[in-house]
Structures are given as structure tokens and as C-alpha cells.
Amino acid sequence: MADDEITIRAANSKDAAALIKLMKQLSKESKNFTTDVQVDQLTAETEAEAIDAVNATGTNLIMVAIAGTKLIGVLSISQVAHTVGELGVAILSDYQDMGLGTYLIQEAIDWIANFSQLDELTLSVLKANQGAFRLYKKLGFVVTGQDDHVIEMKMNIKKG
């Protein structure tokens, strides 16, 4: 399972059904995975349209990690202000602690530096998710605020 060759690439509309399946599995296996949409209400058709819409922008991104033919991780960047994107990343538990999150985030930073109009990434991480918090700090994110449960972080990204 975890020995499969892993591929990272931008999502395309053909990934829609598999992406919904992945999000449902992530929702079941982790309290740390949250999404702005009701995963159970998504259809492959509407998800395919959403992926196509994201791919048509220079300010939003969906990347997938694939082991063999199975989607095992997803990264998204959603534009929240003119040059600011919000980062989300989730990986199935069987594939965590293998450097995949680091690689996905580094690919996203490279995309912003070289192809996007964005120059800043923000994210929210649950305080209970210390592994993710340490990863974000290691990659250069800085804390911008926090409450009892959530830490807000950001990273400015140099172009080119």
C-alpha cells in the first residue's frame, strides 16, 4: 500500500469522483480535516465543474497525491484576498509521516512563486494537530494569531 509509487499533480475534472471519495474518507478518519462544503452533497459532475473553474484561474489550485491509481492526498489553495491564498492540505493516515505533506506544500509554494498572482499563503491549524503545526513552522510559516483551539499562520512568498 504505502510502497506504491506516488505521483503529485494538479487535479483535473477526471479526478472528481475519486476526489469526493478521498474527502469522505479524510472526513471519517481525522478530526483535523475540515472543508467548506458538505462532502456528502457533492456530485462528480459539480466537482468536475469546480475543478475546471479552479484550473482556469491563476489564484486557486487543487493538487492531488496518487499512489498507484488511488488518490491519497489533496492540497488546495483558495484565493481569499487580492494576493492572498488560504492553504489546505490533507493526507490519508496510511500515507502520513512519509514527507508527502512537505512535498505537496513545497510544490504549492513553487506554483505561487512562478505561476500565480498570489504572494502570501495563510492557513489555520488546530492546536491539537502539533505535527502539522511543526511542519508549517519548519517550512517558514509564522504565527499571526490564535485562540483556544486554532492557530493562524502565514507565509510571504518571493516571486521567481
TrEMBL record:
InterPro entries xrefs: Acyl_CoA_acyltransferase, GNAT_dom
N-acetyltransferase domain mapped to chain residues: 6-158
Domain of life: Bacteria
Gene3D superfamilies: 3.40.630.30
Protein name, entry field: GNAT family N-acetyltransferase
Cross-referenced CDD domains: NAT_SF (cd04301)
GO molecular function list: acyltransferase activity, transferring groups other than amino-acyl groups
